[in-house]
Amino acid sequence: MKKLITLLLIATFTFSVNAQKKDEKKAIKTTIENFFKGFHKGDVALLKTTIHKDLYAQTTSVNKKGESIITPGSKAYDNLIGFAENVKPTDDYFEKILSYTIHVDGNLASVWTPYEFYNKEKFSHCGSNSFQLFNNNGNWEIVYLVDNRKKDSCKPSQK
Fold first, then answer.
1. Which of 30, 58, 74, 107 lies in disulfide reach of 146, CB 3.0 to 4.6 Å?
2. CB atoms within 10 A of CB 38
3. Residue 81: exposed, middle, or buried by beta-carbon count in 10 A (0-12, 13-18, 19+)?
4. Mean pLDDT to the nearest integer, 27-56
5. For residue 123, what is the domain's CATH number?
6. What is the C-alpha separation between 130 and 12, in angstroms, rounded?
7. What does the alpha-carbon distance between residue 149 and residue 46 come to, in Å, rounded to a whole number?
8. Domain extent for 128
9. 105 domain residue, yes or no
10. Pairing between β-strand 93-97 and β-strand 108-119 as defined by DSSP bridges
11. DSSP code of 111?
12. Which residues contact 94 (CB under 8 A, 6 or more apart)?
């Protein structure tokens, strides 16, 4: 009887922990989805709910000489908000997220999102985003974003 009770307690605990992790991953994915919704639509209020005021961002790429380069990092909160404020309804760009890989440890999360970028419905480039998020007292916020951009080795899917 003791073994049965122990097994039931372990199963209950495991189920509870897995459910919490699933809920956390869903909340994190929603944060990333809302980031792109705010970014694409110029919805500053929505964008602000997804990024920390000390957001830091960088971009990597390969230059024409074939050298890997990275932009100097910068606090990007004001830049993103400024960009979103200037999005016009006629702007036609779209970043299609192909998948999400989410890792969570306490109040820290890491999200990897391969993407394709389209401008005026024409494929522009592809790459991956790497997001670092912080759970700010119940609200997942992006604190760091680095992406890469490439034109070679891209196989665009259907938009």
1. 58
2. 22
3. middle
4. 93
5. 3.10.450.50
6. 34
7. 25
8. 2-150
9. yes
10. antiparallel
11. E
12. 40, 117, 118, 159
